[in-house]
Amino acid sequence: MTFSVCFVCTGNICRSPMAESVFRARVEDAGLDGFVVVDSAGTGGWHEGDGADPRTVTVLRENGYVSGHTARQFHASWFSRLDLVIALDEGHLRELRGLAPTAADAAKVRLLRSYDPAAGDDLDVPDPYYGGMDGFEECLDMVEAASEGLLAAVRDAVEEKAA
Description:
Blueprint: E1 3-9, H1 15-29, E2 36-42, H2 54-62, E3 84-87, H3 90-99, H4 103-106, E4 109-111, H5 133-162
Parallel strand pairs: 1-2, 1-3, 3-4
Helix pairs in contact: 1-5, 2-5
């Protein structure tokens, strides 16, 4: 039995593929890769079929992460196969909950930074697309900080699902 996590941002070329790569590495390091499936998507289909933004790829590679990504758009029909849908900002959270076919599906949608106790009240991961490399590095820092708490929650859910 597997636990499925999908990270969602706007175009699926910056934040969500970064979160997917970082979290997949955390899952593998924790020995949960046979139990947890990690992917990502965008709320829109503007970049479907494209690779991750080159700046995302650079920041990931420079920090030891692997990225072999192809952008795609999130579809409401996916809720039935997903256990957790991780939004990268409040706009994505609202849009995803609006797409959810049921209240139970809407409850699967959470903000990534809600898993970072140091995040405070600002739970958005800012979109780095229109800025420079520093925005991508800041994005990575936020993703990494939240990934530990998310991993703990997913580990607990996997154990509960297996019981």
